């Protein structure tokens, strides 16, 4: 199942199947990073404009609250800009920035003790590989459906399908196990599909 977010996706995102291409996957010229490291205000503004939407979208999908997402965006950018001199490459800049954003969003959920709430695990769960219904292409509809899921389940779905994280990576981020991630992906995927296809019936169930 692939989470299509046409309304929120920046020009660099693609609709290719897994592994997902993150909306953060923006090639940043080394010269721009050098200018930002040197403290050039215009370079900071350029980086902010490029990554504002991906950071805010990720934070909103994980936190489920616009005010929290705005806080995560601000905290992420402040942390990235404050530590930019320590970034020496070796991995894409966007990957480092995305990791900061994910950590900030999950920390927001932990402070509110929201990651303890998830869909119950089953004994025999398998990854949900069925294609999503057409409604998944509607950003507003998908957002409403995601908000009906527990934060931890929503986080697993978004990190796996939209950001391309592995179950092992998600387990590390959530401080759980890979089996937990797989179980939440399977059950959450089925629940999300039900919400998208028959929202009224799914809400009553």
Automatic annotation (TrEMBL):
Keywords: Sigma factor, Transcription, Transcription regulation. InterPro entries: RNA_pol_sigma-70-like, RNA_pol_sigma-70_dom, RNA_pol_sigma70_r2, RNA_pol_sigma70_r4_t2, RNA_pol_sigma_r2, RNA_pol_sigma_r3/r4-like, WH-like_DNA-bd_sf. The keyword Transcription applies. It comes from the Bacteria. The keyword Phosphoprotein does not apply. SUPFAM superfamilies: Sigma2 domain of RNA polymerase sigma factors, Sigma3 and sigma4 domains of RNA polymerase sigma factors. It holds the Pfam family Sigma70_r2. Residues 142-188 form the RNA polymerase sigma factor 70 region 4 type domain. Belongs to the sigma-70 factor family. ECF subfamily. This is RNA polymerase subunit sigma-24. It comes from Cognatilysobacter xinjiangensis.
